[in-house]
Amino acid sequence: MRIKRRDLIKRLTMLPLAGSVFPLESLLSAPVAVDNHSLFLQDDQMPELHRKALVMDGHTHVMTRELLMGTDIGQRYKDGTVDLPRAKEGGVDAMFFTVYTPEHYYPGRFETKNTFRVVNLALDQIEKNNAVIELALTASDIERISKKGKIAAFLDLEGPFDLDGDINLLRALYRLGLRSMQLTAHNTTNAFIDTCNDVSRWGGINGLGKEIIAEMNRLGMVINVAHASNDAILQSVEASKAPVIYSHGGFYGIVPHPRCITDEAAKALAEKGGVIGIHFGSLFNNPKYFEWQTDTKETTPASVHSAELNTIGEVDEELRTEVPLNFTGEIPDEYWMHVDQLAKVIDYGVNLVGEDHIAIGSDLDGGPELPREIKDISDFPQITMAMQRVGYSEKRIKKILGLNWLRVIREVTGR
Ligand SMILES: [Zn+2]
Asked: How far is C-alpha 151 from the chain's CA centre?
């Protein structure tokens, strides 16, 4: 049977929006009371090392479905790949709690409104589920919260706080608790930085980009260059006084996709103390899958088009048909990546820039074509087991699982 795939990354990049509206009933998620998916990993299979280690994911999508479907991240769901019960089950102690403003909101210039409401919702959801999760503003917070057995949420923004780059809005978000932000407007070039998927308007970053970097340095915010163009990464690393992160992606040396970081950029970022988070998706990590996907068109410019939708509510309606943002296609066996391939990508990174600069950035609930052994966040121990099979030391695995994120956050926030 021919494969019917839904390439979410591509879809989220293409505007204006098209497609039919599904009946709302079919889109509503209902919490489930019992865990019925222990097929992948049994409780007693979690390695002791994983249980003891501080496990931090550098890019976990949250709040899109909570906002659009009215779900509660504290409940366990059958769909999607992230909720707090499953995160606990996967031994995840901390995450870049990534709130997302996709391209859908840009044509009508609803990006700032969406960003503030998802940050506000994230704070509400963290407060509501305070028994299991707390907001972290620093590395010390992450340690303190995880020692209590709770999950630490380190707020991170994917999408523009403002396509024009108004620094006052950035400061307001900082005051709300945002401590990490991607410079690009997801896949779209904004007023100050080029992305890897869109037109190069600035040849990297411009003067405003440097001002924003300086302000983030001054505030103590983590600068995230995922989705930036190669020149933009190099120039951002150069401009920043603090280490810079690339929260989620693969290596261009393995898969020549624009969302993969070049060896040159990876080395520059690491030399300044930065960290690269390895994505869970086949597209960025499995050359066979990438080659198979011959019709890949992610390089198509994702410039903002004219708005057809007049209100933010209309945009919500459209986007609601796409959440949870998970890959739902089928992958033939020969192209479906095993978790051991992820370990190979991690090893490529360790050989390239050293064990102090590689971490995990799953992009769960953001749409990656997950490895066979990982159905959702509860299967996080599979990564540890794959690294153990490579023969990594306990010390190295702990760095990659979380200590590298912790170190870079401490350097940036000062605590
Ligand atoms: Zn992303």
From this structure: 17
Rounded to the nearest whole angstrom, what is the distance from the C-alpha of residue 281 to the centroid of ligand 1?
Answer: 11
Distance CA 283, CA 216 (A): 31
The Cα–Cα gap between 367 and 130 comes to 27
H or E segment at 64?
helix 64-69
Which DSSP helix (H) or strand (E) runs through 153? strand 151-158
Token pair in block for residue 145: 């919260």
pLDDT band at 29 (very low <50, low <70, confident <90, very high): low
> What mean pLDDT is predicted for residues 298-310?
52
Question: Of the candidates 368, 370, 380, 382, which has an alpha carbon nearest to the alpha carbon of residue 151?
Answer: 380
C-alpha–C-alpha distance, residues 349 and 197, integer Å: 23
| Backbone phi, psi, residue 42, to 5° | -85, 155
Ligand 1 midpoint to CA 1 (Å): 31
The reported pLDDT for the residue numbered 117 is 97
Domains of the chain are: 8-14+40-413 (3.20.20.140)
The type of residue at 399 is K
102 C-alpha vs ligand 1 centroid, how far in Å?
10
Which pTM value belongs to this model? 0.89
* CA 397–ligand 1 middle distance (angstroms): 24
Alpha-carbon torsion 401, 407, 409, 415, what sign? positive
